[in-house]
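User: What would this chain look like folded?
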Amino acid sequence: QVQLVDTGGGLVQAGGSLRLSCAASGRTFSNYAMGWFRQAPGKEREFVAAISWSPGSTTNYAESVKGRFTISRDNAKSTLYLQMNSLKAEDTAVYYCAASNRPMAASIQEVFYPYWGQGTQVTVSS
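Assistant: Here's the prediction, encoded as structure tokens.
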């Protein structure tokens, strides 16, 4: 199995940027599709972005983050990234990276992600 560690969260003003990282260890990182999810206080966890395995990665984004967030991966470093620009107060949440057991799909459903990071807090002040 694969182990995931999320980092990069913090406090940022609205309109600012953050880059989250997810370091993977264990099994071969490039064999997994990966995703980012988030959970705001009092809300259910929701899909943010996903990227299929390499090469020829495809991506998916939640409508709420399209054009502002970019998911990417560096297989040489076994690391997943989420570049977040033009942040809004409603982006405040704990962000989790996850590894999927469907490598060829950039899945949006949690059920396809058996491996999860511990989460990193993102707080956007308005």
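DSSP finds no helices and eleven strands in the chain. If you want, I can go into more detail on any region.
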